[in-house]
Design brief:
This protein has about 325 residues and is an alpha/beta fold. The protein is built from 13 helices and 10 strands. The strands form 2 sheets. A 5-stranded mixed β-sheet has the order 2-1-3-10-4. α2 crosses α10, α10 crosses α12 and α11 crosses α12. The longest helix has about 35 residues.
């Protein structure tokens, strides 16, 4: 009887040990399967509705589905392009203008997806300033950020109406926002993205005259903003680039289909944002992410060539851009 009990206890002990071993092995396997690749995504500015698809992809688990653990960070003083070019961040937010300048200077960043299909920026002025065409810029004060491209764009538009850019006072607004600057009378007009500043003007009941760049020339219908990475990342880790873009594409598609819900996700992730502005901005911008393109994120050689030639013709580039290596659609989902 004692021998029988001893044998039974021994079998139970062995079975328990085997089960524990199998459970341990199973957990180890599970840990290996759920191990995520850490990725850093640096923004171009403070979070706004240009970035909604990223926050949706994070909240909805789209990054995790692709095996990624993505950290979204704000840009430092050096800006997103330099951080991405140096490999300190895997991905970033840029603009076609900046990438074009960088590529000509042999900085190896590449655009891998257009966040907004057409340029939604333009020159805005309170209606009481009487600026309804580029010719009306004469005698007015423009507030900008001190980049050579600003005067070149203003000049390009004014020339179409035989107006003279030398008659425009161009000042640097510094840290002043658009509303503070125009209300104080420091400036008469500025270059804005309507999806944010324009929509905020609507919420403030400020009537704006808005002159979109795309109303005057196709050459200024460039991609802004875009998602960027660097050449080394593409060459050495294309699977991560593909996985990242698969998740991001899904995030922006969700924002296209569900603007109100996407706005809630953004404000939950960044509570300091004005929820009313985010919701109104998202409603305005969501249809413009893809617009008339066959899918979100797609870029064309024509758009890149048009803007690069405009920059070159206006003395903003020392040499012509090698368009073929500046962007790619290969990492967008099929």
């Amino acid at each position: 009887m004692k021998k029988w009990l001893l044998a039974l206890l021994t079998l139970a002990l062995v079975a328990g040990c085997n089960a524990e071993t199998e459970e341990s092995n199973g957990n180890d396997g599970q840990q290996e399967q759920t191990e995520l690749t850490e990725v850093t995504m640096v923004l171009d500015w403070t979070p706004n509705t240009n970035h909604t698809g990223l926050y949706v992809a994070q909240e909805k688990g789209y990054f995790e589905e692709q095996g990624l653990d993505v950290e979204i960070v704000l840009p430092g003083e050096s800006g997103a392009s330099q951080v991405v070019a140096s490999g300190q961040a895997d991905f970033g937010i840029g603009a076609q203008e900046g990438i074009t300048e960088a590529r000509v200077q042999d900085i190896p960043i590449v655009s891998i997806g257009a966040i907004i299909q057409h340029n939604t920026s333009g020159f805005a002025a309170p209606a009481d300033r009487g600026i309804t065409s580029p010719a009306d810029f004469e005698g007015k004060t423009y507030g900008g950020w001190g980049a050579p491209v600003e005067q070149a764009v203003i000049d390009s538009l004014m020339k179409q109406e035989d107006a003279n850019v030398d008659e425009v006072e161009i000042v640097n607004m510094g840290n002043s926002d658009f509303f503070t600057a125009v209300e104080r009378g420091d400036i008469d007009f500025a270059w804005i993205y309507y999806a944010w500043t324009g929509v905020e003007a609507e919420l403030r009941d400020m009537e704006l005259d808005m002159l979109y760049l795309t109303d005057y020339t196709d050459k200024l219908d460039y991609y802004t903003p875009v998602i960027i990475t660097n050449e080394d990342k593409i060459a050495e880790d294309p699977d991560t680039v593909k996985a990242f873009m698969a998740a991001v594409s899904k995030g922006y598609q969700y924002a296209i289909d569900n603007p109100a819900e996407a706005a809630d996700i953004l404000t939950a992730a960044v509570p300091d944002l004005d929820a009313e502005l985010v919701k109104a901005s998202q409603e305005w911008l969501s249809p413009k992410y893809q617009d008339d393109a066959e899918q979100w994120g797609i870029q064309t050689e024509e758009v890149w060539e048009n803007y690069a030639s405009w920059m070159y013709d206006n003395g903003l580039l020392e040499e012509e851009l090698d368009v073929e290596n500046a962007f790619t659609n290969e990492f967008l989902p099929e």
